[in-house]
Structures are given as C-alpha cells and as structure tokens.
Design brief:
By secondary structure, the chain is mainly β. The protein has a domain of about 35 residues. The protein has no helices and four strands. The chain has a two-stranded antiparallel sheet with strand order 1-2. Strands 3-4 form a two-stranded antiparallel ribbon.
Length: about 70
C-alpha cells in the first residue's frame, strides 16, 4: 500500500458489500445504491474520503440429475 509499512491491507475488490478502500468500512446495505451491472457511483465515506463503487453482477447455475423412470 504505497510502500508504507505497518498499514493494514483492506479487502475492497470483488466483495459482497461495498467497502471503503480508505478505511475499510463495509456498507451493510449496498443494495440500497440500486446499481445495475457495470454502473459506477461516487460515495462519500464517514472517514472523509470519497471513492467510486462499481457493481458487477455474476450469475451462477446449478444442475441436478432427473432420475429416469423405469
């Protein structure tokens, strides 16, 4: 992080909630921002820093066998 030692690494990329990259505060209500896939918004954190948040929607699928009838 900028070459400084002793600074805690903040996990803020590809998280399930919006996380401030400055202080690590997690927005527990990220869905309230109502962002579409690829949409970006600017957020002002209580720590006094601003940052951009971008929404990335991922779709997963699950399958299961259908038993064949005898």
């Amino acid at each position: 992080m900028g070459g400084k030692t002793g600074m805690k690494k903040i996990e803020h990329e590809w998280t399930s909630e919006i996380v401030c990259p400055w202080c690590g505060h997690e927005q527990s209500d990220s869905w309230d921002y109502n962002l579409e896939d690829g949409e970006t918004t600017e957020i002002e954190c209580d720590c006094g820093h601003a940052y951009k948040a971008t929404c990335c929607v991922t779709v997963d699928y699950s399958t299961e066998k259908i038993e064949e009838k005898p």
